[in-house]
Amino acid sequence: MGEFAEDPTLHWLEMFAMAPANYDAPLAADLKLIAGLTVKIAEPLARYTSMKIGGPADYFIEVEDEAGLANLLSAL
């Protein structure tokens, strides 16, 4: 595993990514309350790629302005 094996942040992210869909429902609700963001759940990525391939993203977030980005980063 190397140097990353000791980083607890990576372990949390790994567990979060494998969590059941209903585990992160509070996060989705919080993200939808942030002004300047458009949040889409299970958005197919194929419509955003030139080869038209890609599975669904857990969260697809479009940021409208700098304030929205700042608020998003603060929430995450």
Order of helices and strands: HHEEH
Shape by Cα distribution: globular
| CATH hierarchy: architecture | 2-Layer Sandwich
Poorly predicted runs are: 9-19
Figure out the total of helices.
Answer: 3
Structural class: alpha+beta
Give the biggest sheet. Answer: 2 strands, antiparallel
Average residue pLDDT: 77
Number of strands: 2
Any idea what the radius of gyration is? 15 Å
Termini separation = 26 Å
Write down the CATH class.
Answer: Alpha Beta
How many domains?
1
Q: What's the helical proportion of residues?
A: 25-40%
Strand content: 15-25%
CATH homologous superfamily designation:
Uridine Diphospho-n-acetylenolpyruvylglucosamine Reductase, domain 2
In the CATH scheme, what's the topology name?
Uridine Diphospho-n-acetylenolpyruvylglucosamine Reductase, domain 2
Strand order of the largest sheet: 1-2
Protein described:
- It is built from 3 helices and 2 strands; from the N terminus they run ααββα.
- Helices cover 37% and strands 21% of the residues.
- It has helices at 8-17, 25-32, 66-75, and strands at residues 37-44, 56-63.
- A two-stranded antiparallel sheet has the order 1-2.
- It is globular, with a radius of gyration of 15 Å.
- It is an alpha+beta fold and 76 residues long.
- The protein starts with 7 loop residues before the first helix and ends with a helix.
